[in-house]
Every structure is written in structure tokens, then in C-alpha cells.
Amino acid sequence: MLKTLIVVPMKTLSVSKTRLASSLSNSARIRLVRLLYQKTLNFLIPIAAKEQVEIAVVTKCKYAKEWWLENEKKWDIVRNIWAEIYSQNKNLSLKSEYNGKRLYEYLLFSNEYKDYSEIDKLISSFIIK
After folding, report:
1. Residues 85-112: pLDDT tens digits?
2. Residue 65 exposure: Cα atoms within 13 Å on the Cβ side
3. Cα separation of 26 and 16, whole Å?
């Protein structure tokens, strides 16, 4: 498998301000940057799995680096599961929600899903069979 890097550049928090963010508190800006980073990864991970590429994060953002280090193992598992699904070369349809939550909400905002079997079961619950 040819491995390619998808680079996700993130600016430092101090330059990640928007007009709205400049009026927010520092803790709110930190939460905003983390949320944007998480949503970006959530969007890229299935694409990377389908295209059989790895994601490399190049960033100066301290919070992004910390988040990635804390969650790297989990997202390796997620990428491997998606790679297995895509390798079946079947048409794929996904539910937009399961039990009132989107897939990224389970993966990003919950610490329940850490090992292979838990994550595989979760992703499978979104697949329309």
C-alpha cells in the first residue's frame, strides 16, 4: 500500500481568531479551536481510510498537538476499521444518526469508545445493511 500524508495545518491559537472569536474569552477560543480541529479530523479520517493514506498533523498549535497525542491510538483503530469496510468494495450507505447522535459525536466527545471491538460495533451501527 502506497502511503501518502495528508497534512492538516493548524495555526497557533493567537492567530486563529475571527471577528467573533476576538470577542470571546480565552477559554471559549480554546474550545472553538479544539472543536474545529476535531471536526476537520472527523471529515478527513473516512476519506483517508478509503484512499489508503495516513494523516500527518503538522501544527504549531499546542492544543492540537496535545489532543492528537492523547487520541492517536483511537484514531488508528478508526482508520483501520474504515479501511476494512472500504476494502470490501461494496456500496456503502450510512445513517446520519444513531440513538440521536452523529458518529463524530460518539468518537470525539465520548471516552467510551477506546478499543477495537467497541469502535467497530459503533461504526457498524451506522452502516445501513
Report:
1. 988 878 889 999 999 998 988 888 888 8
2. 8
3. 12
Return d(Cα 83, Cα 47) in angstroms, integer. Answer: 10
Rounded CA separation 65/57 (Å): 8
Cα dist from 10 to 15, 36, 76, 100, 109, whole Å? 10, 10, 20, 31, 20
54 has which bridge partners?
5
Handedness of CA 73, 125, 43, 11 (dihedral sign): negative
CA distance 104 to 7: 20
Residues 37-75: tens digit of each pLDDT: 777 777 777 777 777 777 766 666 677 777 777 888 898
Q: Which amino acid is at 81?
A: I
Q: Cα dihedral sign for 102, 108, 111, 116?
A: positive
Side-chain half-sphere of 36: how many Cα atoms within 13 Å?
A: 18
* Residue whose C-alpha cell is 477559554: 27
Core vs surface per residue 59-93: b (16+ CB within 10 A) or e: bebebbeebbeebeebbebbbebbbebeeeeeeee
